[in-house]
From TrEMBL:
Keywords: Signal. InterPro entries: 6-blade_b-propeller_TolB-like (IPR011042), Xyl_isomerase-like_sf (IPR036237), Xyl_isomerase-like_TIM-brl (IPR013022). This is TIM barrel protein. Residues 131-262 form the Xylose isomerase-like TIM barrel domain. The keyword Signal applies. It comes from Algibacter miyuki.
Length: 554
């Protein structure tokens, strides 16, 4: 029998002047001592840079800052200095350094922040006190303090800096994401993960050309991690893509430490590369389905709005973290994108269901209620003691059911009522997909899990029913193990369920007989159905895409 299988890809129109992140670029002024400051300013402006950044620690360096600010380009506001850096070394005289950073803070123009690099005989307690003092002093003059993670210093990476920001808890203490120092920290392959964690605190980023392989610290001269943007064997556009994905709102600096090329030459090449990368990464992420979707977990059809909704876990992996980096993509009935990120700021959204004009989304520890017409989150309903909220299903009378896979629990939100535990029973064998069929709740189970990190099971999952009145749990057919099920729907007399690990769509009758419909895919997630057309949508999680399949043709 013929089947209809269609992969959909999208080409979207975007504004030609859209670019996503701030396209301005600021250059460190390393290796420019031979160029008079007035000429440096002219060079930055001529090449298209928005300004510069420099070390301001000594009286001499404060004079250099002043000279920059007195040039025509900076005094007119055409160029700016968004931040300067100060290295605090706990092995040196503390009293002298406290005097010096306060002088630097006082010398900064409005709008300029102070980076701080922590070095020397530092401890957690001393660093916390220093950052607290700096932040409070800076508040008096309306300035910001920004941690500068630096390789082979006390705080070497963005992740190491986050606990200090959270413990100091001052509103003007921020963080920088440096590509070169994250590469040295071994984070070249996990930049998005790091950036998601750092995003709430990020004020600046710095970029440079870099190699994939770093030298050992005792051999380091920075020629491995800091190059002009058009050099190095690491694809620097990945870093720009990361900034685009987290919607970075700060300023980006071009790191130039140790670069021996003539400044005019390497600065010119780097800004050309930068402009190209900013434009191309934005276009790709708004036109390429593989970038619009990020670990799509559930597809859901809402018949009232005539919309498909796709939940995205985000973060380029299956994640259960409460990181605020999950979203809902909205499509029209033909699969064309209406909004890439219709609802943002979720943690790791999974299953969805709708009732009247409300969309209910399972997220980490909560059920999110969304007004479909306005696209606004109405409330987040706490699901007590939940660990892995998975699918959501709605009955005809408006009762909402939510599966928690790890705790073998089904929650219920009665129409007009409060959340309650509907069923909690090990017989559920790690419930995943849900579907309300008249007076029964159909449950697609994952199978008894032996390793939560890898989702391995002692046996495959099966299909079960729960009577909505008596709460009796029964197997469909003999209840034999079938698959690690993700989603389930019913169409006609048959159940259709996705085998996540096997990449299959299975057709199952009420006797439990199984027939393979399609196979050969990877991580088939939670499917949705437009019952009028018999059209199902299945996200293929690992490929960041989905397929449409017409059940009427099967």
């Amino acid at each position: 029998m013929k089947t209809l299988l269609k992969l959909l890809f999208f080409i979207l129109s975007i504004s030609t002047n859209a670019q996503g992140i701030d396209k301005s670029l600021y250059a460190f002024d390393f290796k420019m001592e031979h160029i008079p400051i007035a000429e440096r300013a002219k060079l930055f402006a001529k090449l298209g840079y928005s300004g510069t950044t420099l070390r301001v620690q000594s009286d001499k360096q404060r004079d250099i800052l002043k000279s920059y600010l007195e040039t025509k380009e900076f005094s007119s506001g055409k160029l700016t200095i968004p931040v300067v850096f100060f290295g605090f070394n706990f092995s040196n005289n503390i009293e002298t350094q406290n005097i010096m950073w306060r002088r630097t803070l006082a010398a900064l123009p409005q709008g300029t922040a102070m980076w701080v690099i922590i070095n020397g005989n530092a401890t957690k307690e001393k660093t916390l006190l220093l950052l607290k003092t700096m932040a409070q002093e800076a508040q008096k003059v309306n300035k910001d303090i920004v941690i500068y993670p630096h390789d082979n210093c006390f705080i070497e990476s963005a992740e190491e800096a986050i606990p200090y920001i959270e413990e100091v808890n001052e509103p003007n203490l921020f963080l920088t994401l440096h590509l070169c120092h994250e590469m040295r920290a071994g984070n070249g392959n996990r930049l998005l993960e790091v950036a998601i964690k750092a995003a709430p605190y990020l004020k600046f980023a710095s970029i440079s050309g870099t190699n994939v392989t770093m030298f050992a610290n005792d051999k380091a001269n920075w020629s491995d991690a800091i190059k002009p943007l058009d050099q190095g064997d690491y694809d620097v556009s990945k870093f720009v893509s990361v900034l685009q994905k987290i919607k970075f709102k700060g300023k980006t600096m071009l790191h130039t430490f140790g670069i021996e090329d003539e400044p005019k030459e390497h600065l010119s090449r780097s800004i050309t590369k930068w402009n190209t990368m900013v434009d191309s990464t934005y276009k790709i992420q708004n036109n390429d389905l593989n970038h619009i979707l990020d670990n799509p977990e559930n597809a859901y059809w809402d018949s009232i709005s005539k919309s498909w909704f796709i939940s995205n876990l985000g973060g380029e992996k299956v994640t259960l973290e409460k990181d605020g980096y999950g979203w809902i993509t909205r499509l029209d009935e033909n699969g064309n994108i209406i909004s890439n990120r219709w609802i943002e700021g979720l943690d790791a959204p999974t299953g969805m269901a709708s009732y009247k004009n409300l969309l209910y989304v399972g997220d980490r520890g909560v059920l999110v209620e969304i007004n479909i017409s306005t696209g606004e989150i109405i409330r987040k309903i706490n699901l007590p003691n939940s660990e892995f909220i998975n699918d959501v299903a709605a009955s005809r009378n408006g009762d909402i059911y939510i599966s928690d896979t790890f705790t073998n629990t089904i929650y219920k939100l009665p129409e007009g009522g409060n959340i309650e535990i509907f069923v909690k029973n090990d017989l559920l064998e790690y419930p995943n997909g849900l579907w309300v069929d008249k007076n029964e709740l159909i449950v697609a189970t994952w199978g008894p899990m032996t390793n939560r990190a890898t989702f391995e099971t002692s046996k495959k999952g099966t299909l079960k029913t729960i009577n909505l009145k008596t709460k009796k749990i029964s197997p469909i057919g003999k209840g034999l193990p079938i698959a690690n099920f993700d989603g389930v729907i019913k169409y006609g007399p048959y159940y259709y369920a996705t085998d996540w690990t096997g990449g299959r769509l299975l057709k199952i009758n009420k006797k439990g007989d199984v027939k393979e419909v399609i196979s050969g895919f990877s991580q088939f997630a939670d499917l949705g159905i437009n019952p009028e057309k018999g059209l199902i949508m299945i996200p293929e999680m690992s490929k960041n895409r989905f397929i449409f399949f017409n059940l009427k043709s099967f």
